[in-house]
Amino acid sequence: MSQRPIVAFAVCWGIGYAIAVIVRLPWMNLWLAMAAGMLYCAAMILRPKGTVWLRSLLIVAAAAGVYGDHDARNRSLVELQTDEVSSVHFQGRIVTPVSVNGDRVSFQAEAESVAIPDLGVPRNGGKGERMQFSIRLLAREEQETARRWERGHRIELDGTLRRPAEARNFGGFDYRNYLRLQHIHWQMTAKGTAELIVTPPDSGEWGGWLAMRGIDRFRDRLAGQIDQLFPPDQSGFMKGMLIGLTDEIEPKQFEQFSRLGLTHIIAISGLNVAIFLGCLIWLLRRFGLTRETVLLTALALMPLYIAVTGASPSIVRAGIMAMIGLYAAYRNRLKDGLHIALIAGVGMLVWNPYYLLDVSFQLSFLVTLGLILGVPQMNKLLPIKRAKLRDALSITVVAQLISFPLSIYYFNQFSLMSFAANFALVPAFSVWVMPGGTAAMLLGFLWRTGAGWLGWLIAKTNELLFYVIEQASKLDAFQTIWPSPSPVWILAYYGLLCAALVLLQPFAAKDESAAPEPMLYGVKTNKLPFLTRQTMNRYVLLPASLLGFAGLLWYGYDPERGAAEGRVQFLDVGQGDSILIQTLPGGHTILVDGGGTVSFRKPEDAWKERKNPYEVGRKLLVPLLKKRGVQQIDELILTHQDADHFGGLQAVLEHIPVRRFLFNGTLKPLPSVEKLFQTALEKGTELVEVEAGDTLQVDAGTTLHFLYPLPEGEREGVRVERDQNPSSIVFLMEMAGTRWLFTGDIGRAEERNLLDRWSAVSRELAQEDALAPVAREPASSPGAAAPVPVVYKPVDVLKVAHHGSKSSTTGEWLNAWRPKHAVVSAGVNNIYGHPNRQVLDRLTSYGISVQRTDRDGEVQMTVRGGKIYTRTKLRP
Length: 876
Known about the structure:
Elements: H1 5-23, H2 30-46, H3 51-72, E1 84-94, E2 99-101, E3 104-115, E4 130-136, H4 141-147, E5 154-162, H5 175-180, E6 187-191, E7 197-199, H6 208-229, H7 232-243, H8 251-259, H9 263-266, H10 270-286, H11 291-308, H12 313-330, H13 337-351, H14 359-381, H15 387-410, E8 413-415, H16 418-443, H17 448-473, E9 479-481, H18 487-504, H19 533-557, E10 566-570, E11 579-583, E12 588-592, H20 616-627, E13 633-637, H21 643-646, H22 649-655, E14 658-663, E15 666-667, H23 671-682, E16 686-689, E17 695-699, E18 702-708, E19 719-720, E20 730-735, E21 738-742, H24 748-765, E22 797-799, H25 811-817, E23 821-824, H26 837-845, E24 849-852, H27 853-856, E25 859-864, E26 867-872
Helix pairs in contact: 1-3, 1-13, 2-3, 6-7, 8-17, 10-11, 10-12, 11-12, 12-13, 13-14, 14-15, 15-16, 15-18, 16-17, 18-19, 20-22, 22-23
């Protein structure tokens, strides 16, 4: 506290914020902060015993109060008991850039008044309430109308007021909380522009929006220059890297960068600031300006650069650090990189405490602090004489080590090629592509021909770099998937990493006897002269820290290794099915179906297509599987080939290894289905046809018995079938003494056929209260054994067929299986009216408890000790 007060203050301030985030107590407010501040001043004057610890504690308390007060004041002026209200009249002003994406227009607006019929008047008339708008366009001509809207325009409309959607799966993306951290609590939606009144501001009006609208227009001009200089497959990438416009980056291209840990190249960060300042200072010096004038000019232009590049937390951090450094250089003051970074960080957190929860802020500051503190230490450890090469290696190693825990926490993947990719490719982008692209973009305003030549050279370089990245990203063997670690694991990681680096320092000294030794063990004793600090550190503490670090990584990769329970997770994928089954401690993973988005778009509506449309597999299913540490899918069961069951599986096959793909022996003639099976073959996944009578012994405690579709003679290859519901796979799972029935989308006729088939066989063989088909791997020897029967015993859980449609789940079906629990997978407010009220009433009349994904969100069932424990995401 006395020797490095800025460091101590920043650490205590961050701890206080973290406590307020975790605990959330009502007395953590501004009064606590003021009281802690006054006591801190008294402690500075009186200096009681233990004043250092007391002052640290008071800083923590003050920070907790500041965060708690900020969070408590983040409340909506519109207080409603319902989640949706129609015919709400809104008047206000657009306060963000307007995005037109296919048939969707989105922006944020601040209200001047909000009128809600029959539900009262919001506090202060709703004035000042910030809302997220989503307008669905009805005609192509409306696109051009919407593209003329700008920040600062007034808007008036009658629309639907909705509370933002919360996470519907455990660990899923929470859009409601995402908007709340931007002080937004409601969404406004409307159809078409006919009923909207959008007018430009009156002459003479001004406000913060006026300057930002000028910035928006300048960014649009820069984006236009990039579009002219670079081909379409590169312009989105260059916009993201040069001016922070990431909306137009090709999803496939972004995925390739992500798989190699190179997305920081696209994000505007400290590297961009360093290049901008380097080029600016070089240019100003060429004009013969004095050192003081150069520094002041660069200092004055930095806020403009921050605004033009999007003002993300990482660029704000880098910009503030640059401004502090420029001012310190102007005043000829000693520059301390650590102090500058911490001053910038605390300043940002005071301005907006929610920055603490922003992944961009967290990664930016941790990597920056890691480079400041770790690179000098790493340089001592690397036996490389060439300073530039040593520095490059140190920066890459330290950045990788520091960013690793947060990367797997948020993105759940890490490439073993990440180090090599960053070491080899980042210099090419930072030394040539980024400065060259910036120069070409700006030169285009003065000399179009010269800018075109330079842009052509940059584009050719990009082609080569993109090709290398594309090929490297295809090497699936180097991709690892990590479950999201706990905060305790992350703290332990950084603690052991720091300990190992400190204990390794003596090995880097030329004269080891003279090297300063780490003070992790400082006890010397005459009774044990051989147990010196040097001996203890080298032979005890260093091996212990390295082994602890390795053990921590081993545990973090599979934290549930050996857990004695099984899980069946009915994921909420909207109007579709997707069920994740994990058998533990066997560690077997089965995925049943993958959801999907059903589209009814006509060819003439191609203008409605969005640049990066929502896709269940890529946006929801794959991130959920990775977050839960699914590193391999042993069996992927596709019950049938309708879009709401197979649509998300394309992304699953592309991102997660799949051993075997079980399907119903048919092929639906659709390009997307053909692509799915072709991808499975290219990935080396075994395709397996299943039918009634097949059995899969998953592990010692879990068996799958396939009951449907019924065999049609000898298996003679895949047959084409357009109507897939009647061929849905139905299977019974026995897991640790529990029984589960999964039914796909079969209807009444299929239920009847299944019951008749197995009842007839049961009567013939008089099998007694057991399900015992011949144990053989699916399709391992087609037609090798006749199915042995089933006598119906009650099942514990029934997955209701066809999303609860009235075409399934008859009384006869329920009488046969007598389930205790039923799960319906259906989308919220789906157009089909699933689940049907008659089906729900029928289930209730049989005394069956019902969980529904449209009402409850994800339904998780855990098998432990032969019992089933259920929890749901939205309803306790």
